[in-house]
UniProtKB/TrEMBL annotation:
GO cellular component: membrane
Keyword Cell cycle: no
Keywords: Oxidoreductase
PANTHER family assigned to the protein according to its UniProt record, in alphabetical order: DEHYDROGENASE/REDUCTASE SDR FAMILY MEMBER 7B, DEHYDROGENASE_REDUCTASE SDR FAMILY MEMBER 7B
A Pfam family: adh_short
Recorded GO MF terms: oxidoreductase activity
Family membership: Belongs to the short-chain dehydrogenases/reductases (SDR) family.
Domain of life: Bacteria
Protein name per Swiss-Prot or TrEMBL: Uncharacterized oxidoreductase
Species of origin: Pedobacter westerhofensis
Length: 247
């Protein structure tokens, strides 16, 4: 897919992977819009990168309706949606863990939000000669990290949804569906699990996203994810044990 001179919306674009990807895609001659719920971050990122920033909580139905209305009015040529907004809660399962409430919070952002936003924007995407939906999942899409248990659940669910969406849209639309699976990334939220010391820079993810989409790689593995996936499908039990060793 040609990823230049496109109009692109990135959720969670105020920092981390979203910010780096917005920067990379802007440099390729695309019109990039970033959205996020933190007004200060979005305003700052928009000014730094010289692009449009829209304050929007992707879990809020009213806010999503307003975002889509603005896209229709100001950016009717939108051809790429990158569902990047997400959140993770670090904890372990067990009595008193509050897993239900934590899972509900994570699923609202990590799963239900991209499902709703994608479906709402599909009419616009389908009007373009070439279009794409890009879902940012994780290496935990195929095996859990036990200190991020329900976050892992959300990414497994989004992975499954992405595969189904890809197969369905390929039947009668021009909309391609990509999935990006990063391993540990150095972001603001990854510090407690070693992201600052061992995480990949977000700019590497941005480069892999650009290169992967440009080469029609529908599953884009970043960092250690490709090897971790191969290990899992070779010997699932051993792979999961090694993935969670010491936790």
């Amino acid at each position: 897919m040609n990823l230049t001179k496109k109009t692109i919306l990135i959720t969670g674009g105020g920092s981390g992977i979203g910010y780096a990807t917005a920067k990379r895609l802007s440099e390729e001659g695309n019109t990039v819009i970033i959205a996020g719920r933190n007004a200060a971050k979005i305003e700052k990122a928009g000014k730094e990168l010289g692009l449009t920033g829209i304050v929007c909580d992707v879990t809020d139905e009213v806010a999503i309706a307003a975002l889509v209305a603005r896209i229709k009015n100001e950016f009717p040529d939108l051809s790429v949606l990158i569902n990047n907004a997400g959140g993770a809660l670090l904890y372990t399962l067990g009595e008193g863990a509050g897993a239900f409430d934590k899972a509900k919070t994570e699923f609202e952002t990590n799963y239900f939000a991209p499902v709703r936003l994608t479906e709402t924007l599909l009419p616009i995407l389908q009007e373009q000669p070439e279009a794409a939906v890009v879902n940012i999942t994780s290496n935990v899409s195929f095996h859990p990290l036990i200190i991020l248990p329900t976050y892992s659940d959300t990414k497994a669910a989004l992975h499954s949804h992405t595969v189904a969406l890809r197969m369905t849209l390929a039947k009668d639309t021009n909309v391609k569906v990509f999935e990006v699976m990063p391993s540990l990334i150095n972001t603001e939220g990854s510090g407690p699990i070693g992201g600052a010391e061992n995480g990949i820079p977000p700019s590497v993810v941005a480069d892999d996203i650009f290169n992967g989409i440009s080469n029609n790689l529908y599953e884009i593995y970043v960092g250690d994810t490709g090897q971790q996936r191969d290990d899992y499908f070779s010997n699932p039990f051993t792979a999961v044990e090694q993935f969670n060793q010491g936790l």
